[in-house]
Amino acid sequence: MSDLSVKQQQKVSVPIVIIILALLASNIVMGVLTVRKYISKEPTVAPQIAQLQSYLDKVNANPADINNRLQLAYTLQMMNEYEQAREQYMEVLKIEENNLAANYNLGVIAQKEEKYPEAEEYYTKVLSLKENHVIAAIGLGETYLAQEKYDEAITVADKVLKLQPGKTDLHLLKARAYEQKGDNEKAAEQYNEVLKYIPDDPEAVEGLKRVK
């Protein structure tokens, strides 16, 4: 691992602390409004806020620890604090450029924000590092579907299915792509592939009804 710059060694940015304080204040207000049996002498801190503070403390104590920084980033991501989460994932990539988790989750954030070219970049990076990364393939495929790039979605699914046969989510991805292309016959084939593994899969059952 390369030496960290002075910037990387700095403590986590003030906005994260502000987020914690804001959430804590909100939690205290809610605590006052709860039923008496849940009120204690001190307000209960929501587990997510406590977890965030814990990872923040660990990252500040050791900025080079990738695992703690990833946990901090993911906690922020689950709280929909995407910009703060992105900053932490980028710090991970400064330390370890090919970190799978950071690249994948940056793709997820970009996809949620409908920044599709950016999402494509990160998902493609993950698949270049691990060809059978199923959830990255699904993310990339869904990004293609959102842009009406149906053939690209099918290609991505096929590549990973060769390495990981029987992955129903990838067959569903192909089915959706074919259906949206207007190729109902091939869409039906893919929905039926899903039903071989999960006979009552609701998405496949409903999809099959649509394309018949």
As residue ranges, the low-confidence spans are 1-10, 25-44
Give the integer mean of the pLDDT values: 86
Written as H for each helix and E for each strand, in order along the chain, the element string is: HHHHHHHHHHHH
Structural shape: elongated
Number of strands: 0
Secondary-structure-based class equals mainly alpha
Q: Given the structure, what is the number of helices?
A: 12
CA-based gyration radius = 22 Å
Helix content: over 70%
Q: How does the major sheet shape up?
A: none
Task: Give the percentage of residues in beta strands.
Answer: under 5%
Distance between the termini: 56 Å
Question: What would you say about this model in short?
Answer:
With 212 residues, the chain is mostly helical. It is built from 12 helices and no strands.
Q: What does this protein look like?
A:
- This protein is an all-alpha fold and 212 residues long.
- It has a domain at 12-97.
- The chain has twelve helices and no strands.
- It has helices at residues 6-9, 14-33, 47-61, 66-78, 82-95, 100-112, 116-129, 134-146, 150-163, 168-181, 184-197, 202-211.
- The longest helix has 20 residues, at 14-33.
- It is elongated, with a radius of gyration of 22 Å.
- Mean pLDDT is 86; it is low at 1-10 and 25-44.
